[in-house]
Task: structure prediction
Amino acid sequence: MKKNGISHPAWIEVDLEQFRKNLQVIRGRIGKRLLCLPLKANAYGHGLVPMALAAEEFGVDVIAVSCLKEGAELRRAGVRSPILVFGAIHEEQIGDLIEHGLEFSLSSKFKAELVAKKCREKELQCSVHLEVDTGMRRTGMRPETALTLFEELKRHECFRIRGIYSHLATADEPADPFAYRQIEAFAQLREKIGSEGLVWHLANSGGVSFYPESYFDMVRPGLLCYGLTPNGSEEGELRPLFSLKAKVSYFKVVGGGEGISYGHIYKTKEQTRVVTVPVGYGDGYSRSLSNRAKVLIRGRLFGVAGRICMDQFMVDVGKEEVYVGDEVTLIGRQGEHEISLWDIARMAETDPREILCHFNDRIPRYYVRDR
Ligand SMILES: *Cc1c(COP(=O)(O)O)cnc(C)c1O
Result:
């Protein structure tokens, strides 16, 4: 596959048609509420700018990022949609946040005063969301503090208070008692402050999947928009967009009882055929998948043989015919089989979000529109 005229034997495919379908499915579920798409950490590894442009085209209402850097990159790429920065802001970022027209989170009176000062200096207004901590204990004010700060900020010329939000800590499984307590605490604050002109938002993917009571005025599902569910269960029409593929780069025959790759943690039983795949942990294919993960070649599953190296790994294909140049699917569907991100995440004893985030820019990404 070629990108910018340079050929590379491994690539990520992102299915934008499936992305559009996933957004439609989620829209169907949330009715008239707003849809905010989290595009942080390189859009969960799918590629920040291309995913933002697709999201704008498909009519996402708000884009969310983690920090100024991601937001500024989107503005530079011509993204016009409202962009909300989730993470806590730092004093030296305030000027740029305002000038790039980014909406950002306020979680303290101290930061609010710094922002007000900067706005006066620049004679500009800014759009903010107040963040309330209802149980995540990460960023966000206690509900009482949020109530007081809201009253104060209303009197300032410079603040346009767009919304009030909080984050669920335990919603990745259904019927969690603490998730209901967070929803209840958030609803109570809304009773006190009122909904007039404000966007109240709480639901992440877990909220959208399992807690319709958490929808309020806007939802912020990340993982779910990329077609993965928060607990690995099947969910209706949602399908992943992400595939990782490569071409076999080398073939050899190895005798019985021989070790393969660093440390020889894999030993052949009898004479066998071994192929090399040009992807490694230097691309984000975790070393913890060594001797565990499977790949698909010619519609059949084969195991990774030995340690995954920085740039390549080996596969024992037994007596099967596999040739240099054959397509290998590391993540995704080939023929009747699928290697899902959840399969890979479980093998690496982590979450699919982390697996996705680790793929860096050495592997080119291709955006597929229809198939
Ligand atoms: C990352 C994030 C989300 C999305 O989380 P998912 O579980 O992937 O849906 C939503 N809200 C906030 C504040 C986040 O940081």
Q: What stands out?
A: The domain at 242-368 is CATH 2.40.37.10 (Lyase, Ornithine Decarboxylase; Chain A, domain 1).
